[in-house]
Amino acid sequence: MIPRTIMIWCLLALLASAFNYYTSDQSRRLQARLADAHENIAAEQERARVLQAEWAYLTTPNRLEKIAGQWAIYDEHAAGHVVSLKMLNDTLPRHDAVQRTASLAWQKIDPTFAVADVPLPTTWQQSAVSPRWRVE
């Protein structure tokens, strides 16, 4: 028969070769994953360069000025476009007139024929049922 020591050495050699095969296979898999990761990084870097070039083109001052000129509502800041707060106070209706009109509208009274002494409501609450305002 085969001596016991030769069997032990053969078994050890078989275990060593199996371990060597396992580690080399793991190494190949990890190298493939590393190569894929490098390819993905290179692709993302290329996309970043393309986006930077596109952003540089889109934000050039001459291009933005041209687009602003095409889409601007007003040519320049004309004197008629800017008003003072005093002019706004003179042209806008007063707060009590707005409340009186709202009160009359709620009561379904035409505000053009309303009496000037209509009492104004003291509190306003929003109805839970309707989004309109109601007077209490």
Structural summary, described in words:
The protein is mainly alpha-helical. It has two domains: about 5-70; about 90-135, no CATH class. The chain contains four helices and two strands. It has helices spanning about 5-60, 60-70, 85-90, 95-105, and strands at about 125, 135. It has a two-stranded antiparallel ribbon. It is elongated.
What's the quick description here?
With 136 residues, this protein is mainly alpha-helical. Helix content is 62%, strand content 4%.
Structural class: mainly alpha
How many separate domains?
2
Return the string of H and E elements: HHHHEE
What does the main sheet amount to? 2 strands, antiparallel
Q: So what's the overall shape?
A: elongated
Count the DSSP helices: 4
Intertermini distance: 112 Å
Q: Residue share in helices? A: 55-70%
Q: C-alpha Rg, in Å?
A: 42 Å
Uncertain runs: 113-118, 122-136
Number of strands: 2
Proportion of residues in extended strands: under 5%
The side-by-side strand order for the widest beta sheet comes to 1-2
Mean pLDDT across the residues is 75
Task: Give the key terms.
single chain; 136 residues; mainly alpha; 2 domains; two-stranded antiparallel ribbon; 62% helix; elongated; disordered C terminus
Topology of this structure?
Blueprint: H1 4-58, H2 61-71, H3 85-91, H4 95-106, E1 124-126, E2 133-135
Antiparallel strand pairs: 1-2
